[in-house]
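[job 4471] stage=fold_predict status=RUNNING
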Amino acid sequence: MEQGRVTISKNNGIATISFFHPQSNSLPGLLLREIAVTIEQTGADESVRVIILRSEGEKAFCAGASFDELIAIRDLDSGKHFFSGFALVINAMRKCPQLIIARVHNKSVGGGVGIASAADYCFATCNASVKLSELAVGIGPFVVGPAVERKIGVSAMSKLAINATEWASAQWASEKGLYNEVFESQSKMDEAIEALAKQLSVSSPEAMRELKKILWKGTENWDELLMERAGISGRLVLSQFTRQAIEKFKSK
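[job 4471] inference complete, writing structure tokens
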């Protein structure tokens, strides 16, 4: 349970991938890799027409990188390896042939914003505020940055990245294009997700695959780019500033 879990269910062409971690759905390295592998395996299943990606629980959708794991990093290779987990998830979502619907039921930080950005269609509740907090601990949203920038543009991404201690509301995220639809309640959101997923499950798989290729045009270099970004984060996480900042956050 300490490392969390990933589960998957399939029904009538709709696959639902869920992840969970007891610390507000934070993302340790093993969980990141399990999410990426599950997406890749599901993408290879020809019986699956559409994927819903969600987290469990009622608290945060995703609290981002695991602070416990960040503070334990002691060398550059370990740092790059950890942050490459976010690269693997985003690239798995990008290359998955099926369209991916994200269900963001509550707040998202850092890597959680990256996951929401990498989805092809994103539903959220009015409680689903977002924050890129990395700069506040001496790192920066380097790995998730390309996905966030692709979805909301440089200006909006800059706001989140620079004003790293402030939450942006779900309404703001919707206006900038991160969220496609925002609902007052989870029940209303789930009704809309079910309706769209059912519609897509009977749509042409070939047409959806071709549409996804077009939507992601221009990202063909992301396998290399995101790994380069992981190296930057892996180096910065070793700094004394970052270690002290993380310890301060953990003590709150």
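[job 4471] summary: Residues 100 and 120 are 5 Å apart (CA to CA).
[job 4471] exit 0
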